[in-house]
Structures are given as structure tokens and as C-alpha cells.
Automatic annotation (TrEMBL):
Protein name (record): Unannotated protein
PANTHER family the record matches: MAJOR FACILITATOR SUPERFAMILY MULTIDRUG TRANSPORTER MFSC
InterPro entries in the cross-refs: MFS (IPR011701), MFS_dom (IPR020846), MFS_trans_sf (IPR036259)
Membrane-protein topology: Multi-pass membrane protein
Subcellular location(s) of the protein: Membrane
Gene Ontology cellular component terms for the protein in this record: membrane
Organism: freshwater metagenome
Molecular function via GO: transmembrane transporter activity
Family annotation (Pfam families): MFS_1 (PF07690)
Keywords assigned by UniProt, alphabetized: Membrane, Transmembrane, Transmembrane helix, Transport
């Protein structure tokens, strides 16, 4: 293959790898009801299994970056894809909830590793500024594309063949990633200082415990359960952080690579990653459709096709505009536009038809998605030449912490207000509309703050926005 074709196949490989976790997470939502029935599990037990599995896989976040920078993207992506396939097989054949939890955790380790290395591959495939900017538009495209396709596929498989057969899609994604990685990614020669894995593992354990603690606190705010689990998670996080500090002092050459956070302008853009992934108008609209309009998950996914389609357009536009005008400028403008568009939530009233919030989100989805690629690109530009995967790990940790902490905020504020009553009265509908107005304000403040952070980032990097 010629160089241009190889670059395109590498980008396709990265896109598929990045999409793996999104596919498994999205399709799992459509499997949970059947899983709960199959294993005679309570709602609390089902939520516990999915929460622990998603949190446990974060243990490898920093370790994957170290290993990929040491042994190369090709090897790690092949192993990660194989692990994802193994997790799919375990889930498909699970005879009880414990094995199911194990399979989801194994699959989660594979998918999060694929996402981290996939972003690293995307970052290194296109060294030119314009080509790389367009490539990060491809990165932002993954979420809306998966959000359109995965619910349709899962909803078609579960009623006809059963929930276990959905994992065949997971297996196929992992297998394709392995085959493409072996074909188009090169294996660099080993060299350099021997890596230790204690410090990145301890950092990952702390991240996992923090995320689980916030997730359990969110569940606790809704059901008044899991208090002991919150305390245990907090204890593990503190112990891991203390052990990490000690290890970093004792180790001669700790390999936990945080150099990207020491670069000029890193803190503002890292905070922007945290905020944008933490407060999400798509999530709040999803809740509104289910609680205000009493829609099923499938009906909700169908209605969200239009906003997801406009978001896909926004992702591509964000990449193209970044290639022309620069990432910091496009990210800032897109975030300001997203903040303004989020206030469209006030168009939703107690007696609004369901099309109103859909149209509001369809408009807001364009700048929201347009900002994702440029923000990610800005952070990945901070990576040292020999630490691209480690930088991807740091970005992933910020995104996951944002999701976990925002889950607590949305759970305690927006969710409780939307779920305050199941009665179908004008008064309740008014309260739910008011909750969505508050969600719009929260998003506007979050996106506006992220825009300000991108301005600070640009100034520290001495990048002009004019």
C-alpha cells in the first residue's frame, strides 16, 4: 500500500479501536433488562455489576500509556483487542452475575486500552497540522456515530436472538482491530530504560477508586444504598495515593508519565477536558425524554438520531475549521456557541411536545461536538515525542473523572428533580421543565467556563485567537 492509503487504514484502525468502548457501553444499556431477567437480579444488583465493571477497568489507564510508549502501539493494540474479545466471550457464556461482572471488567480493560492507544495512533499518524486537525474531527465523530448505530443493532438482536448474541458485535470489533493493527502498524525496536509498572498501576488504582466512589455516591443519592461502598472506595483511593507518593519518592526512575501536565498551558486544557466530558446536554435531554415523556430506551434512541446526526456534522466541521483557523480558536468559538445554544433549554415548557427538546439539542449538538476534536487535539499537542500514549492516558483519566463527578452532580440535582414524581400532571410537568432549564444553565456555565480555559491555554501557549 502507498503511504496515503496506509495513513487512511491506520486512521480507520484508530477509529474502530476508539469506538469499541462506546459500542459496548451503549449496547449494554439495551441488554440490562434481559440480563436482569435472565439472572433474576434486582435493579440494585444490576446497577452494581455495571458500575463496578466500568470503574474497575480504569486501573489500567496509566499502565497502558507506559506500556504502549515502551513496547509500541502495535503490540498493545493487538493485546487490547484480544482482551476485548476475551471479555465478550466471557460475557456471552456467563452462567451467573459474578462471571458476568468478570467478563464486563475484562472487556472494559480491553476497550479502554484500545481507546487510549487508538488516540495515540491517530495523533502520530498525521504529523501535519491540517491533516491532524481533520483526524481529530474523526475522533469526535465516533460518539455520535455509535450512538446512532449501536441502539438499532442491539434492539434488533436482543428480542430475536437474546442479549448474549450482542457480544458477537463486540468480538467482531476486537477482531477487526487486531487484524488491522497487525497489518498496518509497525513494531518499533525495544530500547531505553526498563520500565517499572508500580507507579502507573497505583495511579490507576487511585483513579478507579475515586471514580467508583463518586459513582456509588450518585447511586446512594438516588437509593440511599451503597454507603459502605463509598467509604471503602474512598479508603482505597487515599491508600493508593499515599502509596503512589511513597513509590514516586523511592523509585529511581518512576515511569508514571505526567510530563504532559507539566507543559505550558496544560492545566487549563486538562480542566476543559474534565468539564466538557462531565456536563453533557445530551445526557440531560436523554433523562428528560424518559421521565417527562415516558419513553423507552429504544424510542429515546430513535428520537435522538437527529441530534446525533447534527453532532456528527459538527464533529467533522470542527476538524475542518481547526485545520484552517487553529484548534484553540475553533474550540473557544464552538464552546461559546454551545453555551449560548444550551440556553435553548428554556424553550421547553410544561406542555411542550417532544420535538421541542429534540430540536434544541439538534442545534446545540453542532457546536458541542465541534469543540471535542479541537480540545482533544490541543491537549495531545502537549505530548512529548516519546510519550504520546501516556498523554492519551492522562486525557482519558480527566475525561473519566469528569464523567464520574458530573454523575454525582446530575444525580443529586437534575435526576432527583426529574424523578420527583411519576404523576402525569401539569404541576409535575412544570417541575420537570424547570429541571431541564437548570440543566441548560449548568451546561451553559460549563461550556462557557471551558471556553475561558481555552483562552487561558492559548495565551500560555502564545497562540493568537484573533
Amino acid at each position: 500500500m502507498n503511504e496515503s492509503r496506509v495513513a487512511k487504514v491506520r486512521a480507520l484502525t484508530a477509529f474502530i479501536a476508539i469506538s469499541a468502548g462506546l459500542v459496548s457501553f451503549t449496547s449494554l444499556e439495551f441488554m440490562l433488562e434481559a440480563i436482569q431477567s435472565d439472572f433474576s437480579m434486582s435493579s440494585d444488583a444490576t446497577m452494581f455489576v455495571s458500575t463496578v465493571a466500568s470503574g474497575a477497568c480504569l486501573i489500567v489507564v496509566f499502565l497502558v500509556g507506559v506500556v504502549a510508549d515502551r513496547f509500541g502501539d502495535r503490540r498493545v493494540l493487538v493485546v487490547a483487542g484480544s482482551v476485548f474479545c476475551t471479555g465478550a466471550v466471557i460475557v456471552a457464556s456467563s452462567p451467573n452475575p459474578i462471571v458476568l461482572l468478570l467478563g464486563l471488567a475484562v472487556g472494559g480493560v480491553g476497550s479502554i486500552s484500545m481507546a487510549i492507544v487508538g488516540l495515540s495512533v491517530l495523533n502520530s499518524t498525521f504529523p501535519g497540522r491540517r491533516e491532524r486537525a481533520k483526524a481529530f474531527g474523526l475522533f469526535a465523530l465516533a460518539a455520535p456515530v455509535v450512538a446512532i448505530i449501536a441502539p438499532m443493532v442491539s434492539s434488533a438482536i436482543v428480542p430475536t436472538a437474546g442479549w448474549r448474541y450482542v457480544t458477537a458485535v463486540w468480538f467482531l470489533i476486537g477482531l477487526v482491530t487486531v487484524v488491522l493493527s497487525r497489518r498496518v502498524l509497525s513494531a518499533p525496536a525495544e530500547g531505553g530504560v526498563r520500565a517499572e509498572f508500580v507507579s502507573p498501576t497505583l495511579a490507576g488504582l487511585a483513579l478507579s477508586a475515586i471514580a467508583l466512589g463518586f459513582s456509588f455516591a450518585n447511586i446512594n443519592s438516588q437509593t440511599h444504598l451503597h454507603r459502605e461502598r463509598v467509604v471503602i472506595s474512598a479508603g482505597v483511593a487515599v491508600a493508593a495515593l499515599i502509596a503512589l507518593v511513597i513509590a514516586m519518592r523511592l523509585l529511581r526512575r518512576p515511569t508514571l508519565d505526567l510530563r504532559s501536565l507539566r507543559a505550558r498551558g496544560s492545566v487549563p486544557v486538562f480542566a476543559a477536558v474534565f468539564i466538557v466530558n462531565g456536563v453533557n446536554l445530551f445526557f440531560f435531554t436523554y433523562l428528560l425524554l424518559q421521565f417527562r415523556y415516558h419513553l423507552t430506551s429504544f424510542d429515546t434512541a430513535l428520537l435522538l438520531i437527529l441530534p446525533q446526526a447534527t453532532a456528527a456534522c459538527g464533529a467533522l466541521l470542527g476538524g475542518r475549521f481547526s485545520a484552517r483557523w487553529g484548534t484553540a480558536r475553533v474550540a473557544t468559538v464552538a464552546l461559546v456557541a454551545a453555551a449560548v445554544a444550551s440556553l435553548g433549554a428554556f424553550f421547553v415548557s410544561a406542555d411542550s411536545r417532544v420535538i421541542v427538546p429534540i430540536l434544541v439539542l439538534a442545534v446545540a449538538g453542532v457546536p458541542i461536538a465541534a469543540a471535542v476534536g479541537p480540545i482533544t487535539h490541543s491537549f495531545m499537542d502537549l505530548s512529548p515525542e516519546d510519550g504520546t500514549a501516556a498523554t492519551s492516558s492522562v486525557r482519558n483519566s480527566g475525561a473519566n473523572l469528569g464523567v464520574a463527578i458530573a454523575g454525582l452532580i446530575s444525580g443529586s440535582i437534575i435526576f432527583d428533580r426529574l424523578d420527583a414524581s411519576s404523576a402525569r400532571t401539569a404541576e409535575v410537568y412544570g417541575q420537570q421543565a424547570a429541571a431541564f432549564h437548570l440543566a441548560g444553565v449548568m451546561c451553559a456555565v460549563a461550556y462557557g467556563t471551558a471556553a475561558g480555559l481555552m483562552v487561558v491555554h492559548a495565551r500560555r501557549r502564545r497562540v493568537t485567537l484573533s
